[in-house]
Amino acid sequence: MAMATTTREWNQQNTKKIPLFPLLSLLFFTSIFILLSQFRNAITTTPSSSHSPLHTFQSHHASCDYTHGKWIHHSARTLRYDNTCKEIFKGWNCISGNKSNALQLAMWRWKPNGCDLPQFDPIGFLHNYRDTSIGFVGDSLNRNMFVSLYCTLKSVSNGKVKKWRPAGADRGFTFLDYNLTIAYHRTNLLASYGRWSANDNGGALETLGFREGYKVDVDVPDKTWAQAPSFHDILILNTGHWWWAPAKFDPVKSPMLFFKKGEPVIPLLTPDRGLDMVLEHMIPYVEERARPGAIKFFRTQSPRHFEGGDWDQGGSCQRHQPLLTEEVEELFSVKNNGTNVEVRLVNEHLYKALEGSGFIILDVTHLSEFRADAHPGKAGGKKHDDCMHWCLPGITDTWNDLFIEHLNNIKGRS
Ligand SMILES: *[C@@H]1O[C@H](CO)[C@@H](O)[C@H](O)[C@H]1NC(C)=O
Ligand SMILES: *[C@@H]1O[C@H](CO)[C@@H](O)[C@H](O)[C@H]1NC(C)=O
Ligand SMILES: *[C@@H]1O[C@H](CO)[C@@H](O)[C@H](O)[C@H]1NC(C)=O
């Protein structure tokens, strides 16, 4: 593999506090912006003060601010795992897909200001988290992170892995020598949803003229993960992309219609208000059912990097280097209202809902905003560029470093 001999540093230090609320979108469907444009004005007036949960967490740990820092290139880094890891979804396998910088992606290290974020040690992790079950609950970006953890652990575990699907999970594995289980529970909205059509006998929504849509039960978890809080010792939740997915939840043809206790919520909610209501119900749902001593994470939004248009307008991500700080602001600032602006907007909703909860916020957003180079793009010959998911190996490896660093800090404290 080609190795750069120079060390390049992208100074990503932010000189002033800015709202760090990036976002992503779900690969296959998401043209996020049609819906967004409808309620963006309302959201942008929200004050951007939502950093407090993270700071609360940090003060407990006397540790550093992992959010702000820079990516540093290290040409001597080795891959944690390679393209032969079978769990890597074909579209994310950038080495096999011949993405020209696929091998370079692992050579960048996130250096937070004022401390280090070490690469986690998979053997130490397997030892320390013996008899533990870890559940990733969320959309395909959480699967992307799950696969990274799986491939890293698999690379040191001599094949002694049992494949199974605990408690509604989409995929799951137990590393038998350690009785450590990791599982992925697929859920797009956290809340349960399904198609809705008008009833001939009429009803509140029918009276308002609705014929078709999606019924989203704000107080009912998707069955894929309803058992997860009582099953796993460690949970990592996310949601976000699908709330801005007009390709699926077309505001006219198939709008999201919110239901609570089985009845439509009237007046109608916009999707961003629906997200708030779902979070209001799902966060306590987890807290009430979590196992004793469980550790709960909520992961922030993962940014997309479409340039020159959205995913369905020929947008692409062709960069081979991380972005510069100014470029990040250009692409993501809410004020600029760019193609990928939704990431920071979603985070505002998450931070607000999580304030005062027992969840640890896993803030992957800002560090990921720099990595316009790390998406699959065209790799593997896709019809539309994928500038939303991440190549593996790639930056969800760093998300796992951050996740495990938080876990180790908690363990060290107790
Ligand atoms: C990647 O390149 C190899 C070698 O040139 C070729 O055999 C393979 O078909 C290519 N794979 C894709 C997905 O284009
Ligand atoms: C394996 O780990 C689970 C937690 O994931 C625990 O409930 C179970 O008792 C462990 N099994 C053994 C044999 O220790
Ligand atoms: C932001 O951009 C979108 C799409 O380009 C546009 O429809 C919308 O009106 C803009 N919103 C604001 C607040 O400028």
From TrEMBL:
GO molecular function: O-acetyltransferase activity
Keyword Repeat: no
Chief location category: membrane
GO (cellular component) term, any one: Golgi apparatus
Chain segments annotated as transmembrane: 20-39
Domain of life: Eukaryota
UniProt topology in membrane: Single-pass membrane protein
Residues in coiled coil: none
Subcellular compartments: Membrane
Pfam families: PC-Esterase, PMR5N
Family affiliation: Belongs to the PC-esterase family. TBL subfamily.
Name listed for the protein in its UniProt record: Trichome birefringence-like N-terminal domain-containing protein
Source organism of this protein record: Lupinus luteus (European yellow lupine)
